[in-house]
Amino acid sequence: NLQNGTGEMISVKINLSNDNGNDTRKYFGFTIAGGKDKNAPVKIDAVIVGTPADQAGLQ
């Protein structure tokens, strides 16, 4: 679950295989910023175009 820009919690499912099941990618394609050690809420920092995260609509 992630918090969107309005403070609402959302869920995002990211599938790491393509339609025929032989995709060899081992990454989601996004970075996370924040966390307890940074004293900041966890948030999506960047989404790389063309990756599973981008294809799932993560912003």
Automatic annotation (TrEMBL):
Residues 13-59 form the PDZ domain. Transmembrane segments: none annotated. This is PDZ domain-containing protein. It comes from Wuchereria bancrofti.
